Amino acid sequence: MGKNKKERLNVVYSTNKDFDYDYDEEFEEETLEPEDQDLRVQIDRKNRKGKEATLVTGFIGSDEDLKDLGKTLKSKCGVGGTAKDGEILIQGNHKEKVYNLLLDMGYKVKKAGGN
């Protein structure tokens, strides 16, 4: 990503030959280690026309790491889903399987809700 004049903040000119512009960097949350995560696995039926989905919430970390975990879970369950906004949604009722997969990966995880 190229740095241009529009991205320079509050500096017009500097006589310091070693001066480097400060740029606003997007803050990306650091991903906690699996044993430090506090995940919840539950079945979600809201806004799904009666269809069940397995929902994993509580992930703290980067979007890329969330998507990687979601991809792994979807692959192991053999179904589709999404991973965004700190949540992983797996199509269908895979609560037990997802719970056990997360435990095997070293995550601290609890079952939430009924079923």
**What fold name goes in the CATH topology slot?**
Translation Initiation Factor Eif1
Strand proportion, as a percent range, falls in 15-25%
- How is the biggest beta sheet arranged? 5 strands, mixed
* Helix-residue proportion: 10-25%
Shape: elongated
Cα distance spanning the termini = 47 Å
Which stretches are low in confidence, meaning pLDDT under 50 for 5 or more residues running? none
CATH superfamily: SUI1-like domain
**H/E topology pattern:** EEHEEHE
Content-based structural category: alpha+beta
Q: What is the correct CATH architecture?
A: 2-Layer Sandwich
Please give the count of helices. 2
Biggest β-sheet: strands ordered side by side in the sheet: 3-4-2-1-5
Average pLDDT, all residues: 84
**CATH class, please?**
Alpha Beta
Task: Write the SSE topology.
Layout: E1 39-44, E2 53-57, H1 63-77, E3 81-84, E4 87-91, H2 95-104, E5 109-111
Parallel strand pairs: 1-5
Antiparallel strand pairs: 1-2, 2-4, 3-4
Record keyword descriptors for this entry:
single chain; 115 residues; alpha+beta; Translation Initiation Factor Eif1
Question: Gist?
Answer:
The protein has 115 residues and is an alpha+beta fold.
Care to describe what's here?
The protein is α+β, with helices and mostly antiparallel strands and 115 residues long. It has one domain (29-111): 2-Layer Sandwich (Translation Initiation Factor Eif1). The protein has 2 helices and 5 strands. It has helices spanning 63-77, 95-104, and strands at 39-44, 53-57, 81-84, 87-91, 109-111. Strands 3-4-2-1-5 form a 5-stranded mixed beta sheet, with helices on one face. It starts with 38 loop residues before the first strand and ends with a strand.
